[in-house]
Request: fold
Amino acid sequence: MKNISKYKVDISIFLCIILFSIISIVTIKSAEKLLIDNSHLALKQILWYGVGFVLISFIMFIGNKFLYKNAWIFYFLGVISLILVLIFGSTINDARCWFKIPGIGNIQPSEFMKIILIIILGKVINDFKEKHPNPSVKEEFLFLIKICIIVGIPSILTFLEPDTGVVLIYLLITFIMLLISGIRYRWFILVFGLFAIIIGFILLTYFLNNDLFIKIFGSSFFLRVDRLLDWSSGSGYQLENGITAIGSGGILGYGINNTPIYFPEPQTDFIFAVYSNNFGFIGSLVLIGLITFFDLRLVKLAIESPSNINKYIISGIIGMLIYQQLQNIGMTIGLMPITGITLPFISYGGSSLLSYMIMAGIIFNISNENIRYRN
Reply:
């Protein structure tokens, strides 16, 4: 009986993922009409989801304890993959973020690094809290230095690709998990102050002397800052057409597989614009409601978990998902800068989808632990 209960899944979370998969495949099929070479993306997404459900089953079979126990091995493998992609990776849109595997597609190591960071940070934080239930300031400082090294290595490597959006996710995951851990708030004030000084210096240099900025930080970083700061103008072919597509969808939308307005990256960055155009205002509310329900279920799962490490892990997952959801939808409607962040479980992408399905397997394991604890 115990073995059977081990493989049960949280029905509400499972149904959310099923609905996400249907929405994703249908919307990507509609997005194919806007692409010159769609390469049967909807069919590929079906295959990625199929592999993803196999991954969920595998994660549930090996259990979370195996992942936590071997967290350092996964971390070093993740760092090695980030180094190798800088050397041997394929360059797409001036970024070297992917391994091109014939017959399979592009694999992006930084997507898997997000979940690896969540696991390793959960383990490191939990080990520290168990060893130092009432840590001194010095002990916390040394602990934070260790965290900075753990997060800093993949952040630097990912920044060099360059992929600033994923680096921001690394930092957000770290912030959320440390906040949940209960360390002294003075560290957050200190870090925010330091970041404010650094960002202030960067912006001051950017606005006062572009040549000096490029000399110090390089032209690549200048273009990234320029892109981030230019979003508020609401200009740009992609953004203008994306907003037009969303607005023209009206109350009920144009229907499935019918997106009359072209804009770049409809299958990934601007997938929400395709969906809103197809299903209108009502459909958009349904999707946002489904996303909100899914997130709230994860929050409830974290609150009910008796295990601290599970709380840290779920908090990292929730922080990452909510940020990506807000960022993707926000940039599509012009409220956030366009950073290339995809919509979890909806946008096309093998690496990102598989990383989310690994997270789903971890979530189901935690849910089962909660059930066994209550019983």
